Amino acid sequence: MRILPALLATCIFLTSIPGLAQKIELLTSGTHSSFRGLSVVNDKVIWVSGSNGTIGRSLDKGKTWQWIIVPGHEKKDFRDIEAFDEHTAVIMAIAEPAVILKTTDGGKTWKQVYFNDTPGMFLDAMEFWNKDSGIVLGDPVKGRFFVARTFDGGDSWHEIPAMELPVADSGEACFASSGTNVRKLRKDEACFISGGRRSRLFIRDQRIDLPLLQGKESTGANSVAVQDKDHLVVVGGDFTHDTAREKNCALTNDQGRTWIMPAEPPHGYRSCVEYFEKDKLICCGTSGVDISTDGGIHWQFIDPGSFHVCRKAKKGKSVYLAGSGGRVAVIKSLPASD
After folding, report:
1. What is the mean pLDDT of residues 243-270?
2. 335 band by pLDDT with thresholds 50, 70 and 90
3. What is the reported pLDDT for 11?
4. Which domains does the chain carry?
5. Cα gap 260→252, rounded to integer Å
6. Is the pLDDT of residue 3 over 70?
């Protein structure tokens, strides 16, 4: 008897939001992999990466998929992927050891372009400015965050000297939850966010404390979205309490000098946030998906599905999501442009 009123209230809530009901279409599921890497080249070409050495590729908007278990890496967890076209992609395995691989033939063969078995090495995310220039971020090693750069499309990687790397606080690290805790900020410049016992935004020599939940290994920032060099939105929370809404999102209009807390925050812990148009964002986590149409001030809950990552097409308007259980989905009927 108690289930029916709750279900009715949920249906009323979803249908009361104009154009936001039935927004997510599941494209595939059931693969024995948890996807945290997602790269959308255009409205048709989608790549995903995840656990058990699994890579997925679709060339027809997710209608059909090619599934690849990377030979020799069957137990690897590929937490991030950057695809450049239907043939070329770079994938990142987090640890034990940390490796980066590249394919130029649609996943038929893979070349190891980076290897690091340093104790404590754990890669978190990659970001590319263009087809040549990219960056990879890792957890602190000997008290400093790990950073490496590529200038040839991921064919080779160059570690930043240790003394030039940002110093991490005790208990501060990064979450390899969606490949989006490092983002390009402007030409050849990136920013990244940390979490754990301390959560900060790093821009050049700036170390900016974030007003997000922190203090435990499971808390802090997970993802940052960049509209331009001044407008950023950060999401996170506590992944062990994924429906809690306390201090799970913050936004800035002045590159982190001041922060605004949402009047209506996302509906739980969120592992990824992405702009799909100016002032319009989507965020997702294990407890559902939210959309904001006012730059992150108000968030509307649109689906209870569990997803780790959401990304917009680099060349196109489509927005896709990926998560555990081999789930990949597409957002339907996004809010129209003003």
Report:
1. 98
2. confident
3. 37
4. 33-331 (2.130.10.10)
5. 6
6. no
Q: What angle do CA 333, 324, 296 make, to 5 degrees?
A: 45
Question: What separation in angstroms does the CA of 167 have from each of 139, 142, 145, 209?
Answer: 11, 9, 6, 14
Cβ atoms of residues 220 and 195 within 8 Å: yes
The two tokens of residue 175 are 């979450």
Give the CA distances from residue 284 to residues 109, 113, 192, 200, 337, in Å, rounded to whole numbers and listed in that order.
32, 31, 19, 21, 21
Position 19 pLDDT exceeds 80: no
Tokens standing for 324? Answer: 């555990």
CB of 147 closer than 8 Å to CB of 165: yes
The pTM assigned to this predicted structure is 0.92
User: Rounded CA gap, 214 and 200, in Å?
Assistant: 10
Averaged pLDDT of the chain: 92
Q: Is 273 exposed, middle or buried (0-12, 13-18, 19+ CB in 10 A)?
A: buried
